[in-house]
Backbone:
């Protein structure tokens, strides 16, 4: 079962909660509004799926596969209108369109009326913490082995 003792050991992606078939993982926000997992030990069956999907717990494994340092790219959209209407220089919309054409799943963050942020299948991407609840489950339906 996932056990986060220090905030630096959680990126708040909610993958552990999404993968949990027992509904044993909920999320609580800290004083800054970031989500952290809380495990209901009564519901948890100790299947360890949450640990297998956690990017922080699997960081060393990723490094062993040649991902010692993240690759960093820069760019901007060729369309000037898209470029200047975007917070990312249009890079997100260009990449999203490419993924859509390959029948992939793209999500972004949007502000709700109460100023909270939710993840949606859309083009806008906000640079604030967003509730990733159930995003991975939507992406991985029917593809569970590919997601772990």
Residues:
């Amino acid at each position: 079962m996932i056990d986060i003792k220090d905030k630096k050991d959680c990126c708040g992606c909610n993958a552990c909660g999404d993968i949990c078939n027992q509904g044993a993982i909920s999320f609580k926000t800290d004083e800054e509004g970031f989500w952290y997992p809380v495990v209901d030990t009564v519901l948890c069956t100790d299947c360890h799926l949450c640990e297998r999907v956690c990017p922080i717990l699997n960081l060393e494994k990723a490094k062993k596969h040649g991902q010692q340092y993240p690759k960093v790219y820069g760019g901007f959209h060729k369309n000037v209108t898209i470029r200047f209407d975007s917070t990312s220089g249009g890079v997100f919309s260009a990449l999203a369109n490419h993924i859509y054409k390959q029948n992939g799943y793209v999500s972004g963050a949007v502000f709700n009326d109460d100023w909270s942020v939710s993840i949606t299948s859309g083009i806008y991407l906000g640079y604030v913490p967003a509730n990733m609840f159930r995003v991975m489950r939507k992406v991985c339906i029917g593809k569970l082995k590919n997601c772990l």
Notes: The longest helix spans residues 91-101. The longest strand covers residues 25-29.
